[in-house]
Write a structure and sequence with these properties.
The protein has a single domain (about 5-175, about 200-305, about 365-435), classed as Luciferase-like domain (TIM Barrel, Alpha-Beta Barrel), CATH 3.20.20.30. Helix content is about 40%, strand content about 15%. The protein is built from 15 helices and 13 strands. Helix 1 crosses helix 3 (about 85-95), helix 4 packs across helix 6 (about 155-175) and helix 7 packs across helix 8 (about 250-265). The protein is globular and about 70 Å long. It starts with 5 loop residues before the first strand and ends in a 12-residue tail after the last helix. This is Monooxygenase.
Length: about 450
């Protein structure tokens, strides 16, 4: 039996996936704009031997619901949201092993300055950086940078491939390993003959420059990706080392895993070269009864409007135009098919209402939720992994940091007893901890 890798899933905002629970008296997410919140969280995660903190992000506001930003602002639906990159140095300073998966949208920043930012963070974390490669999905973000609307979905992945070509050139080929001499006697810090200019000219980017940073411990960070469309899967097959999926049923998760495995075969990669993390929310306590009581208490704080604001942004459907008791099957468009179909797979005969959709998404988004004491939840985790083929968990919260603290207190010891969870960290960089090697796991020959 293999060990289960686990990331915490958070965002530099008040209400990430759990809509309305910022009102719970034990929730501390409103401290998101203080360093102490993040450094305390990092120390908790490292105590629990989490592999990493996966930090979500959006550049833009959810303004599909009601045709404007009012509902998002009322419900703190991923707004206000601060820059996630600013958090990592502080968290790295109070930990030794915790990895960091930074979500950063490539659609609105040139790769040349971005390469420097990531190299800097990889230096400061001593090689514990990962990058979640996203192309964005909110038109409000595109308008914020002067565009009328986003580039089309498929073309965004074409841009992403070109972006990766630039980054790989800067990170991997601009500086040789022995370029930095630090020779005090001769007076040479860097040997100029071992530093090269990247000359890249293509449809999307033109770069004529030397990478500004000396090689960081990993050079290229561990590459995360979350797209599940055909273009997204193809991109993951070439570039992703870790993939994040959100499936509310085993069937949906298994289908996503099968699609990714097919892409690995296409590119000639081993299944071991990709870690697939599934979105999971866990509500637990000392026993099943106490966990169910906690679950019932959390549900008292659910915000239907907040959940539907996020759903509207994810699907492009303005749910404010429907009554809460309207059947969801009557609400269809190209954007919402995957979300609705994912839910109907859970129970094909069930007709979901808008209210039920909101209540499902209000805690944990479009992932699965496990409720119970340590033994029951550990059973659910093991069954989920066995039946879906995923490798690990992206653990979202109902309340923060309480949900993460409960996982450390109740679930980690139970999984350790079963031999399914590490008892100590492996040495080395994030890539070495995850894969046992410093060699990149992506397809280095990818176009």
């Amino acid at each position: 039996m293999s060990l289960i890798p686990v990331n915490a899933f958070d965002m530099n905002c008040v209400s990430h996936q759990a809509s309305g629970l910022w009102r719970h008296p034990d929730d501390q997410s409103w401290h998101y704009n203080t360093l102490r919140y993040w450094t305390n969280l990092a120390k908790t995660l490292e105590r629990g031997l989490f592999d990493g903190l996966f930090i979500a992000d959006v550049l833009g506001i959810y303004d599909v619901y009601g045709g404007g930003p009012e509902a998002a602002l009322r419900n703190a639906s991923q707004v206000p949201v601060n820059d996630p990159a600013m958090l990592i140095s502080a968290m790295a300073a109070v930990t030794e092993n915790l990895g960091f998966g930074l979500t950063a949208t490539l659609s609105f920043e040139h790769p040349y300055p971005f390469a420097r930012r990531i190299s800097t963070l990889d230096h400061l974390t001593n090689g514990r950086m990962g990058w979640n490669i996203v192309t964005g999905y909110l038109n409000s973000a595109a308008k914020g940078v002067g565009q009328q609307q986003q580039t089309s979905h498929d073309e965004r992945y074409d841009v992403a491939r070109d972006y990766m070509q630039v980054l790989r050139g800067l990170w991997e080929r601009s500086w040789e390993d022995g370029a930095v001499l630090r020779d005090r006697e001769v007076g040479i810090f860097t040997d100029p003959s071992k530093v090269y200019r990247l000359q890249h000219k293509s449809k999307y980017f033109e770069v004529d420059a030397i990478h500004l940073c000396e090689p960081s411990p990993q050079r290229t960070p561990v590459l995360y990706q979350a797209g599940t469309s055909s273009k997204g899967r193809a991109f993951a097959g070439d570039y992703a080392e870790c993939v994040f999926i959100a499936g509310p049923s085993k069937e949906v998760a298994r289908h996503a895993v099968s699609g990714l495995e097919a892409e690995l075969q296409r590119t000639g990669r081993s299944r071991k070269s990709l870690k697939i993390f599934s979105l999971v929310t866990i509500v637990t306590a000392e026993n099943d009864e106490a966990a169910l009581e906690k679950w019932a208490e959390y549900r008292k704080y659910i915000s239907h409007e907040g959940a539907l604001t996020l759903m509207s942004g994810w699907t492009g459907i303005d749910f404010s135009t429907f009554d809460l008791d309207d059947p969801v099957r009557h609400i269809r468009n190209d954007a919402i098919h995957s979300a609705i179909d994912a839910l109907t797979v859970v129970d094909p005969k069930r007709v979901w209402t808008v209210r039920e959709l909101a209540e499902h998404a209000a805690i944990g988004g479009m992932g699965v939720t496990f409720v119970g004491g340590p033994q029951k939840v550990a059973d659910q985790i093991e069954t989920w992994i066995e039946d879906t083929g995923i490798d690990g968990l992206n653990l979202a919260y109902a309340i923060t940091p309480g949900s993460f603290e409960d996982f450390v207190t109740y679930i980690v010891p139970e999984l350790q007893k079963r031999g399914r969870y590490k008892t100590e960290y492996q040495p080395g960089t994030l890539r070495e901890k995850l894969f046992g090697t410093s060699e990149p796991q992506y397809n280095t020959a990818a176009p």
